[in-house]
Write a structure and sequence with these properties.
There is one protein chain. This protein has 2 domains: 11-218, 2-Layer Sandwich (Cytochrome Bc1 Complex, Chain A, domain 1), CATH 3.30.830.10; 241-432, Cytochrome Bc1 Complex, Chain A, domain 1 (2-Layer Sandwich), CATH 3.30.830.10. 41% of the residues lie in helices and 18% in strands. It contains 16 helices and 13 strands. It is globular and about 65 Å long. The relative contact order is 0.17.
């Protein structure tokens, strides 16, 4: 057990192995729990797509629920999972997709075998109903004219024009209408391969029994070829401001900055910067924007990091007329950190709260599976102690340096979705230098 900054951090008892097909396996027995989670992580998502295939990863994730060779109907498959005491949850992200099945201890072996069936033997037929469901999901982010109004999607299009990192995860309606079973099958063969995947089980289980189950049901998964993401262009996008007119009572605002990825030596510093700015009601973003100035009900700051790049965002939804003042206030928050490092007390609190989060990972089997399995997928440290040690060395001066380097006013991308008249637009453009 390691103690960092006075916080005791018992290490996770991870058992690591690799099957003959190169599938990485992580078992984390936590006998004090009453359940277990089996999670599967695979390199598939919008970052690995093209303009013509955008949305295919998300569609494929949905279609894995529609039935397998042994359970050919969606209802039959769901019933089989629920009879074991669990629910299969899945999520498509920009650069990976995850499947999580949390079950009572006595059914985790059967659940793991069933998850293998879902992942390896989907029927990928009868697309019509699922297309209707996803169509409704896509429409939630479009206005009546079919224009994208989700602030996250609009801001990423601004930051990464003509690059997959600027795609929406669900993709456009035209692509969805065009996709056929053959497209899904090719995408499944290319991405759902052992070399691109990690399976992690955390919680109360017999490691020997579960290890044998994984070998039995996953060793036959094709090894496949390693998938690499599309490289990020070095040229900075020339356009720094994006505005979408959308009727409503508030305007959504994002101020965004390019940052390095999770493998960067500066990643722990950016992690603590995010917590200094926004980790509780007492931190700078909420205190200044919400409590002191009353500009928004809620506001946030955080670093969205990928393998080789990232984005640091500030955001809030405000009354239309307050938009310039919100942008000005965010620049003031940044300028203060560019001129003066955060206090030792702020950094110590941010560090301790992060360490406490690490300490409680072992109380949550799904959280543990995502910490270990997600780290294994991208080659990141899988030990709690390593993450704690990296954060423990970050100083206030380190935080000031990353702010000076990456949160530079001339490198700001500003996105607004709402109602701004000419005067407000001019003010925001002026503040953004656009």
């Amino acid at each position: 057990m390691a103690a960092v900054n006075g916080v005791n951090l018992p290490e996770l008892p991870t058992e690591s192995s690799t099957l003959g097909n190169r599938l990485r396996v992580r078992l984390v027995p936590l006998p004090h729990l009453q359940s277990a989670t089996v999670s599967f992580f695979v390199r598939v998502g919008s970052r690995y797509e093209t303009a013509q295939t955008n949305g295919l990863s998300h569609f494929l994730e949905h279609m894995l629920y529609r039935g397998t060779e042994a359970h050919p109907a969606a209802h039959e498959l769901s019933l089989a999972i629920e009879r074991l005491g669990g629910t299969l949850d899945a999520a498509t992200h920009v650069d990976f997709t995850s499947y999580d099945l949390t079950l009572p201890t006595e059914t985790i072996v059967m659940g793991t075998a069933l998850l293998a069936e879902v992942l390896r033997h989907p029927l990928l037929t009868e697309l019509t109903t699922e297309k209707q469901i996803i169509r409704e999901e896509i429409l939630e982010d479009l206005n009546e004219e079919g224009k994208q109004i989700d602030i996250d999607n609009v801001s990423r299009q601004l930051l990464y024009p003509d690059h997959p990192l600027g795609f929406s995860i669900a993709g456009p309606l035209d692509n969805l209408d065009r996709f056929e079973s053959g497209d899904l099958r090719r995408h499944h063969i290319e991405h759902y391969a052992a070399r691109n995947s990690v399976i992690c089980v955390a919680g109360a289980f017999d490691p020997q029994e579960l290890g044998a189950t994984i070998r039995s049901h996953f060793d036959g998964m094709p090894a496949g070829a390693s998938i690499e993401p599309h490289a990020v262009p070095h040229d900075i996008a020339p356009r720094r401001f994006s505005y979408v007119h959308e009727h409503g009572s508030q305007t959504d605002v994002r101020l965004s900055f390019h940052t390095p990825g999770v493998s960067s030596p500066e990643a722990p510093t950016l992690l603590l910067l995010a917590r200094v700015l926004d980790d509780g009601l007492s931190t700078r973003v909420h205190h200044t924007i919400c409590e002191e100035r009353g500009l928004a009900y809620d506001a946030f700051a955080g670093n969205d990091a990928f393998e080789d790049c990232g984005v640091f965002d500030f955001g809030a939804s405000v009354e239309h007329s307050k938009t310039p003042l919100l942008v000005e206030t965010v620049f003031e928050l940044i300028d203060e950190l560019r001129r003066n490092p955060p206090t030792e007390e702020e950094v110590d609190k941010a560090r301790r709260r992060y360490l406490w989060d690490l300490q409680t990972v072992r109380d949550d089997p799904e959280g543990t599976a995502h910490f270990v399995g997600g780290s294994a997928l991208f080659g990141l440290p899988e030990r709690i102690g390593t993450m704690a040690e990296q954060v423990a060395t970050v100083s206030p001066d380190d935080i000031q340096r990353v702010v000076q380097r990456y949160l530079e006013p001339s490198g700001t991308y500003v996105t607004c979705v709402g109602v701004l008249n000419d005067a407000l637009l001019s003010d925001v453009r002026g503040l953004a230098g656009a």
